[in-house]
Specification:
single chain; 7-stranded parallel β-sheet; 43% helix; alpha/beta
């Protein structure tokens, strides 16, 4: 019987061990594999026309989805990653023995061999094994159908009872108790408002053997939240009759039978087994529970897509959350071909090189920023609880993995610890050095010489009064980062990135030299490839001679952390609770071809273009989800697109005269429900006022348009218009008069429901827009006077103009151009 069974390709591949330990991979191999595997998977799928196969089309039809295409690509990505690693190991350990590598003769294996050879020019003797014959295929499909029948009934059938309802389901991976106050608990998003305790469902996939997950299991069982063990869950009879038999046993078998003579049968078979393994348990889940959302953890696999397909079938949203900085280019494959409803991530820089549908990207900022800022506020209390005495600064070192498929080596690991020791020996006694190991047991994987050196370093550190090694079972990264003045990480790892976006100095000792956006822009400022340089910079920071954090542009920070404030946790809870939230976007209208003041968008005030000043101010809006610039396709406006790229904001280019059409196409592209129109000649726009007008619009759902420009009480230059996408669409389709196309909103406020937003005092006599040289002189003067570190707004501008008639006189005779 065993001879007749067709093996799962992934399991067979993982059974080929050519070394007793996982050896350090070559940097050039890791760069090549990590950066190119996702593209290779797509190339293979296209060349072999796999998406047109009966199997993929049939499985999509059976399970009412389109995600089997992603499941296939994701599975191939995982297979090639393991395949190349196996091939590399075999060549390292067996090629010199002149041994043969035995592989099944199928297109994917030959494709992988060809790709590896074309890059490294190395090859071994290969013995190509014949594919399974027709009898083996029929037998395997039939036996698998019987095993599905058995697995469905192994824990019994639930015949009676309604499905229980919950808002959020989450695997109990981390513990709930006994770890630092702000650790990543499974309940960190319970607020008893948007998500209540009784609406939260934890589950375990059996009793884990891993120590960390076992704690999560026990904590979940004794917690106030509902919990179930997936391995002992019965299947509902309705699911068995309406889904298991017709879909998994009959229809899926037919889809496989249709591919009997395909050279890719082994591939389809393996993808099918991967799907079954992950999907079947979820059939049991949703035959017992009704859930609004599931939150997957920070591990991305084909199995997640299978789970997402079943969630989709039962009307449950499936979200994946990422917890780390994945902006290193060789991590491109991690996010590629995800089949979830949303990837909840800090900012788009973390998925910049991934092959992924933009629609599933849901940047919400670093959601744990709120908890780190709480630790910053309660710094003295946390320091006392940790039991350290701090008179000076706190410098924290976070170590990382090494060896195997990681570019960092054992040498990098020991050097990192040695750097902490050298700093502790050099720095003032008042400064405290904290070391937060990820897992001290990883040192056991060091070579004998390196291990002896590491033990010596660690012993010296433990004897020093100004050093503390922080254990993970007591204190989380959140508290430790929150009390730190400087955070140093081994390689381009997350802790320093988290520190930077929370306003703390973050630095990287990156001897492996990863390709990361910070590596290119801030080499020898925050990213260093040797200990001498980073130690020198730390000493300069400690004496106040350098402040690298101050030199990181706001646009770069927002690419890594979508929002400057802490709204991420609320957005996170909104999404998981199923709350429908309309997407609000600011679109800045900008071009170089102004008639009265050409190039005004790029005119500098205190060495910054006025468009950049406007972007920086609008980034402080708390009620918006997107900030973009809409410019023209004229070559003169290339400079505006270049500035948008520098500031890390979206840029849409459209018709110069038909600005209405440009706005509509931009709003459609970005999926906006509500549009805020701001023009680039209003660089003093108050972000708080923008938020107020948005709230006023949301509080009056009966209207299509709200602005403060119809009956003016605000100075010209604080113009804000808020309107719905539907009203913009209608205007774009029906507006025909030139002025309606040029000025975007006239058709809306002439034909639809509108409200005016007014101030309690009339300041409409003032003019702080930029249309002429005189306007520019006034705005420059205001900005120079008020921009002294404080975030000034509308009130400060009006108060200044009330007290300074000499400023008002600068542009008092300038007349506004009429709309028509």
């Amino acid at each position: 019987m065993k001879i007749l069974l067709i093996k799962d390709l992934m399991m067979e591949l993982n059974s080929k061990h050519y070394s007793s330990v996982e050896t350090q991979k070559r940097p050039e191999y890791l760069e090549w594999a990590g950066s190119n595997i996702a593209d290779m998977a797509n190339e293979f799928v296209q060349k072999n026309k796999l998406l047109d196969s009966y199997f993929i089309k049939g499985m999509n039809r059976i399970f009412r989805t389109s995600r089997f295409e992603l499941l296939l690509k994701r599975w191939i990505v995982a297979y090639l990653w393991d395949f190349f690693s196996m091939l590399d190991d075999f060549l390292s350990y067996h090629s010199q023995l002149n041994e043969e590598l035995v592989l099944e003769d199928m297109p994917l294996s030959r494709f992988g061999i060809m790709k590896y050879y074309s890059r490294f020019g190395l090859m071994s003797k290969i013995k190509w094994k014949k594919q399974a014959n027709l009898l083996q295929k029929i037998f395997s499909i039939s036996l698998k159908s019987l095993s599905i029948f058995y697995l469905s009934l192994s824990k019994g059938l639930r015949i009676y009872g309604k499905r229980k309802q919950y808002k959020v389901m989450r695997e109990a991976i981390w513990g709930l108790y006994d770890t630092g106050g702000n650790y990543l608990h499974d309940d960190f998003f319970i607020d008893d408002n948007k998500i209540k305790k009784e609406e939260f469902l934890l589950f375990s996939r059996g009793i884990p053997k891993e120590k960390g997950r076992l704690k999560g299991y026990h904590d979940a069982k004794k917690s106030p939240y509902a919990h179930f063990d997936l391995s002992s869950l019965p299947l509902g009879i309705n699911s068995f009759l309406s889904r298991i038999i017709p879909k998994y046993i009959i229809s899926a078998s037919i889809a496989l039978f249709k591919e009997m003579y395909s050279s890719n049968f082994s591939l389809y078979w393996s993808v099918y087994l991967s799907f079954i393994y992950s999907a079947m348990p979820y059939e049991k889940v949703f035959s017992n529970y009704e859930v609004v959302s599931e939150l997957g953890h920070n591990y991305f696999s084909a199995g997640h897509i299978a789970e997402a397909i079943i969630c989709e079938n039962y009307g449950t949203k499936y979200y994946l959350m990422h917890l780390s900085d994945h902006a290193v280019s060789i991590n491109k494959f991690l996010f590629s071909y995800l089949g979830c409803d949303g990837l909840l991530l800090w900012g788009k820089a973390h998925a910049e090189d991934a092959i992924i549908d933009d629609k599933i990207l849901k940047p919400m900022g670093y959601v744990f920023k709120k908890f780190i800022k709480e630790a910053i506020i309660n710094r003295d209390k946390v320091i006392n609880e940790i039991g350290i005495k701090v008179k000076g600064k706190v410098i924290t070192f976070f170590d990382e993995s090494f060896g195997g498929r990681c570019k960092m080596t054992g040498d990098n690991y020991v050097t990192f610890w040695d750097t902490a020791l050298r700093l502790a020996q050099q720095t003032e006694r008042d400064n405290v050095i904290l070391i937060k190991p990820k897992d001290l047991s990883r040192a056991d994987n060091l070579s004998r010489n390196l291990l002896e050196k590491f033990i010596d370093i660690k012993n010296k550190l433990e004897k020093m009064e100004n050093v503390r090694i922080i254990t993970s079972d007591k204190w989380s990264f959140m508290e430790v980062i929150g009390i730190s003045d400087i955070v140093v990480t081994q390689g381009m790892t997350s802790s320093a990135t988290i520190a930077i976006i929370c306003g703390i100095q973050g630095m990287y000792l990156d001897q492996a030299q990863y390709d990361h956006p910070f590596s290119k822009a801030f080499k020898d400022a925050i990213v260093f490839d040797n200990p001498e340089k980073i130690l020198l910079m730390i000493q300069k920071i400690l004496i106040g001679k350098e402040n690298p954090l101050k030199n990181i542009p706001e646009g770069t920070l927002r690419a890594f952390d979508e929002y400057q404030d802490e709204r991420g946790i609320d957005l996170f809870r909104d999404i998981l609770s199923g709350k429908t939230r309309r997407r609000v976007g600011v679109i800045i209208q900008a071009r170089m071809g102004s008639t009265r003041l050409p190039g005004k968008a790029m005119r500098p005030i205190l060495n910054k273009p006025i468009l950049e000043i406007l972007v920086e101010r609008l980034r402080r809006c708390k009620k918006t989800d997107l900030l973009s610039i809409a410019t023209t396709i004229n070559k003169n406006d290339d400079i505006i697109e270049a500035l948008a790229r520098k500031l890390k904001v979206e840029c849409f280019r459209g018709d110069e005269e038909d600005v209405l059409g440009r706005y509509y196409e931009a709003a459609k592209k970005y999926g906006l429900d509500i549009i805020v129109r701001i023009t680039s000649d209003c660089p003093l726009t108050d972000p708080s006022l923008v938020d107020d007008v948005i709230v006023y619009y949301l509080d009056n759902p009966q209207v299509d348009y709200v602005s403060n420009v119809i009956n003016r009480t605000y100075p010209r230059g604080f113009d804000i218009e808020v309107f719905s996408f539907q009203s913009l669409k209608k205007a774009s389709e029906k507006a025909v008069k030139p002025y309606q196309r040029e000025h975007v909103t006239p058709f809306i406020y002439e034909n639809m429901g509108c409200l005016n937003y007014e101030d309690d005092r009339d300041s409409s006599k003032y003019r702080v827009t930029v249309d002429t040289v005189e306007d520019f002189e006034l705005v420059s003067a205001i900005y120079d006077i008020l921009n002294k570190g404080a975030q000034f707004g509308y009130r400060q501008v009006v108060d200044l103009l009330d007290s300074r008639p000499d400023l008002v006189a600068l542009n008092q005779f300038v007349e506004q151009k009429a709309v028509k």
